[in-house]
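Dear colleagues,

As part of the handover before I leave the project, I'm documenting each prediction I ran so the next person doesn't have to rerun anything. This entry is a single chain, and its sequence is reproduced below.
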Amino acid sequence: MKIYYNFSYEAQPDLALCSMQRQLLLLFVNDPQAKPFGKTARAKLAKALGVPSLAPTDVQYSLNSLKVNTIISKAPGGVHTFESAAFERWVRTLTSADA
């Protein structure tokens, strides 16, 4: 299932989120201070994705894409914030099964 969200038509007309990106968004919406490269977060992400484990580099690519596409940013203090409050509200309606 691909999810499309139009953030900026000129910059990205049809932004499709991969499963890893969706799981990262769910992680951050539930815990903005989550450390996505830590063992606990990677284990949670791996379980949600149905894979035995994830290396930090597996997470890095998807996280960078979310930042480049201005979906999330990392504020001082390590808090991951959504650039759009409306998009954050939509992510909150998702469950792991949807992602």
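The chain has a mean pLDDT of 81. Helices lie at 19-30, 39-49, 56-68, 85-92.

All the best with the project,
I.
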